[in-house]
Amino acid sequence: EVQLVETGGGEVQSGGSLRLTCAASGFTFSSNEMKWIRQAPGKEPEWVASIDTSFRTSYADFVKNRFTISRVNVRPTLYLEMNNLEPGDSALYYCVTRFPAGIEYRGQGTQVTVSA
Questions:
Q1: What is the pLDDT of residues 65-102, one digit of tens each?
Q2: How far apart (Å, rounded) are the C-alpha atoms in residues 32 and 19?
Q3: Cα 6 to Cα 16: distance, rounded to the nearest angstrom
Q4: Residue 83 pairs with which residues in a beta bridge?
Q5: Considering the chain, what is the average pLDDT of its residues?
Q6: Is 31 in a helix, a strand, or coil?
Q7: What is residue 64's predicted lDDT score, i.e. its pLDDT?
Q8: 72 with 65: CB under 8 angstroms?
Q9: 45 cis-preceded (ω within 30 degrees of 0)
Q10: Helix, strand or coil for residue 30?
Q11: CA distances from 35 to 45, 68, 71, 77, 92 (A)
């Protein structure tokens, strides 16, 4: 059974930092591209960052060099280091993976709240 468990969210002030963690199990982690998405109340989910099986990364424009996505295949775990957080970053953050058949899995999410 595929499982993705996100942790590390919390409440911080503007300018603060958080490190999100996604513990993966039930599939060959090293074979899957992984990504973080987020969803704020009343808004559509939006893509934040991705890392492929060759460790190549890509980021949404609003990240502005503030976030870093990484993975450790032997654990297997996905990370999102977030610095210089802004109130607009407040959202539920999800770890997501998709399989070749088109089936997508996400965890339960971890809440990030940034106060001004």
A1: 999 999 999 999 999 999 999 999 999 999 999 998 88
A2: 21
A3: 19
A4: none
A5: 96
A6: helix
A7: 75
A8: no
A9: no
A10: helix
A11: 13, 11, 10, 12, 14
Element (H, E) at 106: strand 104-106
**Cα distance between residue 18 and residue 36, in whole Å:** 14
Q: What is the dihedral angle through the alpha carbons of 94, 50, 63, 86, rounded to the nearest 10 degrees? A: 20
Alpha carbon 24 to chain centroid distance? 12
For residue range 102-113, list pLDDT tens digits in order: 899 999 999 999
pLDDT at 90: 98
What CA–CA distance (Å, rounded) separates 84 from 16?
A: 5
Give the amino acid at 21: T
* Tokens found for residue 111: 């809440």
Q: Which residue has the tokens 């775990």?
A: 77
Nearest of 1, 22, 12, 18 to residue 94 by alpha carbon: 22
Q: How many residues does the chain have?
A: 116
